[in-house]
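Project standup — Tuesday

K.O.: blocked on the structure for the chain from last sprint. Re-posting the sequence here as requested.
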Amino acid sequence: MKYFYFFLLVFAYIFCARAQNPVGLQQIVNFTNADYKGGNQNWDIQQDQQGIMYFANNEGLLTYNGQSWKIYSIPSKTVVRSIHIDGSGKIYIGAQDDIGYFFPDGAGILKYTSLKHLIPKKESSFTDVWNIVPFEGKTFFRTNEKIFELNDGSVKTYNSYPGWLFLGECNNRLFAQQRTNQLMEYYNGQWKPVCPLPGRALITAILNFDKNTLLIATLKDGLFLLSGNQLQKLNTSMDKQFSAVRINTALSLSADRIAIGSAFGGCYIIDHRGRLVQNISNSQTLQKNYVRSLYSDRNKNIWLGLDDGISFIAYNSPIKQIYPDANKQSSTYAVKLFNNTLYVGTSDAVFNLPINDSIKDMSYSPGTFTEVPGTKGQVWNLNEVNGHLLLGNEDGAYTIDHNTTRLIYSFPGTWLFKPLSPGNISGDIISGTYNGLHLLKYENNSFKDQGALKGLDESLRFMTVDYGRNVVWSSHPYRGVYKISLSADHQRINGWVVYHKSSGLPSSLHNYVFKIKGRNVVATENGIYEYNEREDKFHQSTYFLPLFGHAEIQYLNEDPDGNIWFIGNKKVGVIDFSNATKDKPFHTVYFPELNGKILPGFENIYAYNSQNIFIGSSRGFFHINYKKYLANAQKLNILLDQVKIIGEKDSIIFDGYFKNGNHTGLSQDKGRVLKMPHNFNSFHFEFSSTLYEQHSNIEFSYQLTGYDTRCSAWAAKSEKEYTNLGYGTYTFKVKARNNLGNESEPVSYTFIIEPAWYETGWSHALYVLLLAGFIYCIVIIQQKKHKKAEQHLRYMHQLELDHNEKEIVSLKNEKLENEVMFKNKELATTTMHLVQRGKLMSKIKEGLIEIQEAADANKNKELTKVLKLINEAEKNDSDWDHFAIHFDQVHSNFLSNLKTKFPNLSATDLKICAYLKMNLTSKEIAQLMSVTIGAVEVSRYRLRKKLNLPQNVNLFDHLVQATSKTL
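H.V.: unblocked you, prediction finished:
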């Protein structure tokens, strides 16, 4: 039962503390052990120069860089209880029965080195190391039994009986608490007493309070102030709560803010007067109330190491979430500050909160919202008209005065109110309802219902007024844009025209009417449009086109400074005319923190001033301190988390830590450029930024010089792969930017892919030699081929010449043969003529002889004379000479050669030879020679003897052979 009362008391204190919280809740991000894949409990937290977070976790050293978690176990696999990072980048850890440090190797991979071997052997057995504190160039480790002092590679031990309870440094003083409840201080190598502690107080933190005073937090006894050696209690409004919830740890957030981590109440924020400023607990979405460790990072955000998980609180964020009804967390449709009271219209009712004028940022207003009576139901609009707060909801129209409501009319669904005349007081007010327009008359400081204006029964949720022209512009998201003409007394609708796609609008759907910069504009699916009265059509606005382009816009609102707040595709942004860029007189700022979190279909923004922008959400509403948002532009950083060679088995070549000698660095040591074989040519790069509170705002751009010709487009993707790179030197560069356009300095990593043996310089030289040899061989072969071809051409030419010569010879021979044939024919003709003449002469001679014998003497004389002439004609050699010339021409000087060879041959012998050569018979020869056949035979006989021919040799054959040899 006593435990029941104890927890009841704890919960009562937590409830009381929560009532004092500011209404604005910082963004809380919860990480469970399923996220970081480690142990439940987280005992200590640190941050290094790169911004990486470190957690002493049950399963080892846990790290987080904004994108990924890693856990490093120590060889003994024991719990890590404490962490300290020194100036060189060594990450000292205190574990169970071990001390040591993590430090990157040449590849940037954290490796553990134990220092236990430095501890004297008799002191080397100990339990958990709960604190690690640097002091005067030394490092101190506290266990429950002893304190170790690490200095220049040696360890000194300080024992205390019955033991040590705390170790901490503040204002260049090192303190420790003995179990005897004595506060001790380290001075000149000795521990000296400072002051005793009251009762059984257990110190959990020592902080700087002011110039000469320290704040000491205890587990159950509250807070104390230490001035010199004097200790006094700091009385606070939280003393009873502290004794109930227990203070596990504490840290300074600012000059007047202290964060306290408790065992049962979450995290408390108090000021120096001990007043509670805020309690962050599971009622504000903190996953656990048991806080074991606290840390304020370099951007003033708070990290909580919990008994089960890790939480991040964007404590310094200018964006907060507010829940008017904390239990239901209903959607918010309207917000209005009226008479120092913040009114919020939700899907359930209207809630209000008094606001102190001294609080510039309303999200810090303490207290709770209360429901305004009589406002139950769906709220659509809150608007100040004529010094009154008007409420439009699903049941009608009301006025609200503090916590009092008064019904103006009961008519289904009032969307909004618009005065029909400019100035502070308007006599007539028009309202848009589910079924057209409704008229209100303002008289005697009150509003009177004038009824519905007949003629148009459409739901009119968006509306502007053309003052002095009695024209109301309204729009229906699915019908188009209405131009409604009112009578001069506003009592009736004279007429209306609807404009849609055929009237110049990009579509008949999703058109929203607003008055911005004194202009009646329509936000469409394709930018902002304005009405052209001369053409009676809509055109894209030339004024707004440079501001919005062709973006789809659903909501517009102008703030008191003339900036234009807008919502498009569930993204919130502002056109800031006070923040010009180099090339534009304005700057567009988006809020990625709110992407997808606004109220879709019923977007609403209430821009009260630069420190108070209210945006409706499906759960409560968001508050933006825009002035702080712009001023809170933290310097961006970029980390190269990992470089891997990818293939069948991935291999890490860089794991996020640059090493420069014995120190970690922010850039690569140029003397540590890794060279890899040619087959390791595919890489995976991971990168991040440690601007944790703007995690959703960060975009990255990268370039691999040596491969990419330009930087990549900005994108949220935090990894990149390259495959099949050629040999050479490459440098991967990456940078980050946020939604305000601020860019980080790039970080780079250089590596070299060595060429394959066939790509090296000597192989290229060999290739050149081989190529030269190949070319030489080709030249020689070509020369040989050319020579052979030339020889072939010569041979072919010679063949052609020979062929031509043969042709010529053949032609000549043919000609000669023709000539021989001709001469043979001529010779034959001559021979035949001679033969015929010889025959004829013989016959004539025979006839004359017969006549002579029969004739008388006188006649004989005449015949004898004739015979004599005939004989002389037969003996005449003129015919023979002519015949011999022709014969030698035909038979290659046969007779001349025969005469030369056988000079003893007579003319008769030559004739016989010629006639035999012509293959004439003895009879034919006798006729030609005018002799008898016998005479021819005798001549032949004599001829054989002159030629010395044997009997068995044919004279004709001999003559043919002899002349052939001669030829």
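K.O.: great, moving the ticket to review. Confidence is low (pLDDT under 50) at residues 1-19. The first strand starts at residue 25 and ends at 26.
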